[in-house]
Amino acid sequence: MKKKLDHDEVREVALLARLELCDKEVEEFATQLSSILGYIEKLDELDTDDVEPLAHSLPINNVFREDIPHECLSRDKALGNAPDADDEFFMVPKILDDNSNG
Amino acid sequence: MANVKYKTLVGLEIHVQLKTKTKMFCSCPTGFGGEPNTRVCPVCLGMPGVLPVMNKKAYEFSVLAGLALNCSISRFTKWDRKSYYYPDLPKNYQISQYDLPMSEHGYIEIPIDGGETKKIRILRAHLEEDAGKNSHTAGNYSQVDLNRAGTPLLEIVTEPDLSNGSEVRSLAQQLQRIVRYLGVSEADMQKGHMRFEPNINIVGEIDGKEFKTAIAEIKNLNSFRALERSVDYETKRQLEEYLETRKGMGQVPKTTRGWDADREITVHQRSKEAANDYRYFPDPDLVPVVLDDAWFEQIKSNMVELPLAKERKFVSEYGLSDYDAGVLTSERTMAEYFEDAIKAGGDAKRVCNFLTQTGLKLANEAGKSFVEFGVEAEKLAKLSKMVSDGDINASAATSLISKMVENNEDPMVLAEKFNLLQKSDTGELEAIVDQVFADNPQAVDDARPGSKKEKKSKGFLMGQVMQKTKGQANPKIVSSILAKKLSE
Predict the structure, then answer these.
(1) φ, ψ for residue A35 (rounded to 5)?
(2) HEC states along B361-418?
(3) A87 touches chain B (CB under 8 A)
(4) pLDDT digits (tens), chain A, 102 positions
(5) How far apart are CA A102 and CA B10, in angstroms?
(6) CB B285 within 8 A of CB B295
(7) Are the C-beta atoms of residues B80 and B282 closer than 8 Å to each other?
(8) What is the pLDDT of residues B32-67, one digit of tens each?
(9) Rounded distance, CA B342 to CA B348, Å?
């Protein structure tokens, strides 16, 4: 089995998922994640050299719709579940580092 | 002073918004403007439990564009999730194509000096969905409008084959013409239909020692001018910075810079210390796309003659100047209108002049394209023949174009109505010449061949004939009658 995930790796994953963990949780998840990874590693025992990677689990392709507009949600409904909104927009904490479009 | 040799390497990441009526994975209408957050539904808002469904038209548009960019088109593609957190991305991932893009390994040709073209390689072109829009005007908050979220985008990535701002601009203009010819995008830069992000660095030698600067990516470019200037500015800036710090690629990180259009400089936005971890993985909500022969052929049948090929044909076959050919091929409708007029018997250079001079002026005044006036190409061809046959002169043709634009009448009918036909009836003109000769015996003597005042007096007699015919005599015919009678 692979060595246990270290604390920095757990903190990195937490950051990617935007989770704030305390030290105790970091330790706890290091153990849990390592055991999950260990379980998954079992699959490495299979010889997959001659197996095509699977793009999708269903044997279906080409599910399309025609390019015809349908009615949208009303703005009230669209904004209804947002934690914060004004009359027109979703409101979020001020964005400092503009990283739009990747 | 150090001995410096260098060249600039520019690669582009381009996003082209496809001209579909609806979004990529839901049936919300696309389109510029619209009240904020009124073109949204549970799918593009990223609500739990919803399923995206592919827009067939968007897929077909991107295949057509891929073909026009000389790419090899994949017969099998799938969709992947690109994860990142940002308020304009409601699902916290963007649906894109990662390891199996719908097209790759193509090129786009750009004209360079001397009628030559340069091939800029395209690494890949794939389909993805756009994000929404953030605005930062409301105090401690940012406002998010998700109307644009889910709009189909074709992302095109070029190899770093461009070497200066003018080539970058040229590529942008060629691409704009291509996607407009294909009808797959409106490609208006101001409206964000086409967004270019150049990646720039320079490589070279200082006193025989090689150097490379760190790559900078430039954002916020919304005009051809900004694109060209930013690349040239950034080249100069990187060279100066390197000469001062002697720190290049590997020693300083990649950066993102924004274009400040007012000051015409690039401004540091952020450093990219580590590559983003997008955690791509296949989207389980979407099944793969298989492009079979029948469907592929059907898409291919929508291919049109591409603008650069048309432009070259206009020069080689019709003898137009590079400039005129460029003007006429800037819009597909105009290029086709021109060709229709030639097929209907119009003279290429004459029709070209009609369109690029008077026609363009009238179109600009009316704020539309000349084609939109609705004057049939056959009528313009007829006008061209009337000039060639000597029925009217060039200035009459100019005023007839304005009248045709107004009421779309036949040019011959209009010429008669407004008395613009030239008199070409030899018998009638001979009688007038005889009358002028009788009235001006001295001038006739002076105009005889060999006389000192020959040229001047001949001009005088010609003037008299024109006066008598109110300027409607065909000058070529009058001139030959004069020559004949004076040598009798």
Answers:
(1) -70, -35
(2) HHHHHHCCCHHHHCCCHHHHHHHHHHHHCCCCCHHHHHHHHHHHHHHCCCHHHHHHHC
(3) no
(4) 456 889 999 999 998 888 999 999 999 999 999 999 999 998 889 998 998 888 888 889 999 999 999 999 999 999 999 999 999 999 998 876 655 444
(5) 19
(6) no
(7) yes
(8) 668 999 999 999 999 999 999 999 999 999 999 999
(9) 6
Taking a C-beta distance cutoff of 8 angstroms, is the pair B179, B187 a contact? yes
SS3 B55: strand
Report how far residue B250's alpha carbon sits from residue B114's, in angstroms, rounded to the nearest whole number: 38
A77–chain B Cβ distance below 8 A for any pair: no
Residue bearing tokens 């340069």: B118
Q: Does B161 touch chain A (CB under 8 A)?
A: no
Q: Which residue of A has its CA nearest to B279?
A: A16
Cβ of residue B143 closer than 8 Å to a chain A Cβ: yes
- The interface predicted TM-score of the complex, written ipTM, equals 0.87
Residues on chain A touching B139 (C-beta within 8 angstroms): 94
**3-class secondary structure, B472:** coil
Backbone angles phi, psi at B135, to 5 degrees: -130, 145
Residues B267, B268, B272, B277, CA torsion sign: negative
CATH topology of domain B426-486: Arc Repressor Mutant, subunit A (1.10.10)
Rounded-to-integer distance, Cα B243 and Cα B1, Å = 11
Query: How do B80-83 and B4-17 pair as beta strands?
Result: unpaired
A16/A33 Cα distance (integer angstroms): 15
CA B330 to chain centre: 5
Q: What is the identity of the amino acid at A78?
A: A
CA distance A49 to chain B (A): 19
Q: Are B342 and B319 in contact (CB under 8 A)?
A: no
B290/A78 CB distance under 8 A? no
Which structural domains are found in chain A, ordered by start?
7-45 (1.10.20)
- Residues from chain B that touch A70, judged by Cβ atoms under 8 A, are 22, 27-28, 41
Q: Say if A1 is an interface residue toward chain B (CB within 8 Å).
A: no
Q: Among B44, B153, B177, which Cα is nearest to B101's?
A: B153
HEC readout, B448-471 = CCCCCCHHHHHHHHHHHHHHHCCC
User: Amino acid identity, residue B446?
Assistant: D
Angle (deg, nearest 10), helices B307-316 and B332-343:
40
Instruction: Return d(Cα B173, Cα B151) in angstroms, integer.
Output: 23
> Structural domain boundaries of chain B?
4-290, 307-417, 426-486
Q: Which residues contact A26 (CB under 8 A, 6 or more apart)?
A: A7, A10, A11, A14
Contact check, Cβ <8 Å, B56/A79: no
Where do we find the tokens 């949208």? A72
CB atoms within 10 A of CB B252: 14
